[in-house]
Fold these 3 entries.
Entry 1:
Amino acid sequence: MTRDKAKRAGRQARLALRARGPAENPCPPGQIGGAYAPLAESEIGAIYAAALDLLEQLGMGDVPERLATRLLAAGAVPGDGGRILFPRSLCEDVIAGACKRFVFHGRDPDRSIEVGGSTVHFGTGGAAVQVLDLDTGLYRAATLADLHDFARLQDRLTNISWFTRNCIATDVADPFDLDVNTAYALLANTTKPVATAFTLASHVAPIVAMFDIAAGGEGAFARRPFVKAHVSPVISPMRYGADAVAVIFECIRHNIPLTCITAAQAGATAPAPLAGFLAQSLAETLASLVMVHAIRPGHPMVFSNWPFVVDLRTGSFAGGGSETALMNAASAQIINWLGLPSGVAASMTDAKAIDAQYGMEKGMTSLAAALAGANMVYESSGMTASLLGASFEAFVLDDEMHSANYRILRGIEVGPDTLDTDAIIEAVLGTGHFLSADQTMAAMERDFFYPALADRTSPDAWAAAGARTAWERATDRARELLQSDHPRYLSAAEENAIRERFRILSG
């Protein structure tokens, strides 16, 4: 082979290697966050002290009798007007004894994640009542078939660490049928960790029986729970909700891990000044933690303090604003300061289309939450239209965005292999470039993320290929994933046993 042919062959090999991308994912889930600290430690201390003052002086109203008995036995004290007050010492003892880390199991053990510490995972959430239709590009009512499709789609997306039902099947009217069929959609379409909600406490036991069928027999689910419950037991400002509290009791009885969500809205159900908002919201989420402690000390609970913002000019929800990014990052920082498993909400764009507003709001809010070190970033995949909508295209675009966020969290490794002055000198005095250097080949495999949907071609190449938008590319990818073969996650025996006992409406 001539020297020129050898050089061309070597160049072609390098180009092929670059086109193939890294053999290993350079930015997997579970990266370490916490570098972004919007609050000074003294400010966290002031907000925490104010939250404890609220619980000690104002306490919680509308406390169901069953819960009041438990709280008083745990060290709470009665207040005026039926309110229950939480002494500072009680709150501090509860925080000290709370579950700090737990395994959020997947039915496939290899897909389980650990919640707590400084690791960051993006997942889903929400209760969208509309879906951005893949064919029309317009919104329509969400259906049970959509929920099955969303579950199947995210099962193929590696950066979504868990799946919470993200839309409400508006074509299922009966609340029990809705809860049952939502749970079934999770079992049938993924083995990732999953989460759901229960409309009423009476729905918990029969649905756990369904989980037992998938887990291998009666009592198997409780020994290794692979479903987490999303519950909002506190109604802002500073009172409990009876139905949600009843659900909490039942979930704990069946050993279901909890995400207790506080979702106050600045200027509406909580103060408009951001510091005051954070104090009230922290107090309310602490009230959930004390409640869980009073029922079963140390039961796994994600401390999900989700600051929500409304546009004070109109009263409309503002899920994609800079204040939302800032407040959820601050919330994650406070929760991590307390040493509790943290959950916040981000990537809740107000955009209806897959457009510039969508990209700006998603990127800003999700990265802020990740950099602040939120253990679980809810609502971060697939949500649009201020949480009213969900989108298949958004799922695949957000999955790619999560890779970029994880890569930022991973940071820059400094060591002999990455900071080699001899290699720089050799390249400068030798070839005059770094394209063929061993370091370049190694870094390509180790350090760089290569997007599949973002377009990095020249303007001419982009135009020649049809001048296609990210929305169009994401639509094609979503269709491709939905039309591909999917594994069956329930055996024929499990499927038959579930259908004999429950009214399964689709799937």
Entry 2:
Amino acid sequence: MKRKWMVPMLCIVGALAYGGKNGDWTLGPFQRPVDAKPVIKPNAASVFQDPLRNAPVRWEALHTFNPAAIVRDGKVYVLYRAEDSSGAMSIGGHTSRLGLAVSDDGVNFRAEAQPVLYPADDAQKAREWEGGCEDPRIVESEDGTYVLTYTQWNRSTYDVGVATSRDLHHWTKHGPALARAYGGKYSNLKYKSAAIVTKLSGGHLIAARILGKYWMYWGEGRISLATSKNLTDWQPVEDSRNEPVALLEKRPGRFDSFLPEVGPPPVLTQRGIVMIYNGKNADVDRDMKLVPSTYSAGQALFSANDPTRLIARSDSPFFQPELPFERSGQYAAGTTFVEGLVYFQKHWFLYYGCADSLVGVAFTALKT
């Protein structure tokens, strides 16, 4: 039986598909499924015994969005941000936990009843309570360990936390990614959104070593770079002023006129490092084809031999809110906020948050 999500074949270059109006180095184009619907939605029936409130909580009753994705045992696993109905009825006012869902085809998901990463009575409690664990990105290491970057939010400040797992269910938290760099220089820095550079190997996106190091693009508003030897402790790449290098910044008149923000883990390709990123449209000096404050997605290309060197950057978004469930929800301006990317059954699958409320998927046809 032909699956409804199949799309026409695209141009083929090795194991990757390139193309689209932004240049032959970009990944894509991506297309939504026929009769597209959210693939993960809130579920008020899911109850979790919260270890800090010491009470049952309907942990994914309000919103489910901003997903990471990984391929494991021939299936797609998505870790998604879920908000309960506690706190103020405003963005960032609830407690977030990370849920886990699995799919045989990349489109139809079965969500587990309990969250897998959440605020607890542990060493990260002060950084994660009551705001929670938000907006994950995930990669696999060479030895099969999963490495997760996520936002730690205590309703006062935020940073990027790192956690590792062998099975996607049991996680070890390692604390803020940049906390130990340069003698603690960045221990109090407010920063979010971090994605580790990967390479495609055996159908899996594996953390890539370049010049003997791992590389991670990070930041919201200004995208910077960090390196690591172990995938848990990261050191910002600094400029001549001993500040984090600024690799991508906002551009007046473009879809990212208010800010750029890191998307899913970048991919090392034949042409360089392809980064899919999120751009927020400004209220003034904006992309007039988009509603003010809309989040859409662009791509940037960095040198494979020098991850600090920007080679190209898309002038227009390759993916933006179009469907009703992408334009209505907690975030009224609409978002297609991309955080998950996998290579699965000879296709790229892109997972994204819809208006801070739901999870969607798009894909592109490939052949190896």
Entry 3:
Amino acid sequence: MKFIFSLFAGLLFTLNFTQAQKFDSKYIQVSNSLVGNYTIGMMKLSRKDNHVKVKYFAANVNGVSVENRYKQWSQGKNIILYSSGTYFGDDGNPVGLCIDNGSIVNNLVKTTGFDALAIVYATGGIAVSDLKQANLNIVVNNTPTTVNVRNPLDAQKFKSWAVSNSATVFQTHLLCYNNDLKAFPPNGGNSSKEASRRFLAVCQDKQGAIQHVILNIKELVTLYEGSKAINEYLLHPSSVFNKIFFMINLDTGSQDVFESYDGNGNRDPRKYFGGTTPLSGAKNLLVYYYE
């Protein structure tokens, strides 16, 4: 019996050891944090060494739902989290310009309100441009080109670039850009509605490393107050960060899809690390995974 027990214990240790290698904790840190008056779920994801990557499913494609597209793609992948992305209209399609892996989903650039143009690259990175600055840099015919995506001629150049580079693109609220708060109080144009919120911030820490930070607020708060509290928290002198490249809003209204996982592939059951809408309700999906 002792031999059998020892063999079983050794096997169990081996399995746990193997599973634990899915994620390296130095790249992924998860915590509950007090931000102003709000307790939030925070996930810090380091892009150092290119282990942590991003994928975005913008819409149903050829009759295949976002849920099924995700399930097919995620087979054999180490998923860190998935979250609903941007807003969608009555037709189920995303609001604003949207391109899915080089295929145009919504051709219309939203000219007001959605100032963040997010670009998810096929290589697993993400960048955001402030459309109000009209200075997005792309390469056209081997020539660096600056485009104003809200200008029709430039928009066509950008769409052609995105299609040829299999890029994924969506628009959403821009909350912070280069350390500057971009969300406004309700009388400045943003909704005064209080709701749970979820943000994605891409920051630089004081060692120069890039980290993606998912911040999930369960308390009811306006977009402005939530953005202001997190902006001040991330840039506080005691923070590990010294720069916010951008912070964007992730939809928690019409779709509040959010699940996160540990290194063994187990779902985190804590309320600050989950949403209220099942995966089947996703109209679009932002996914972080580990390689």
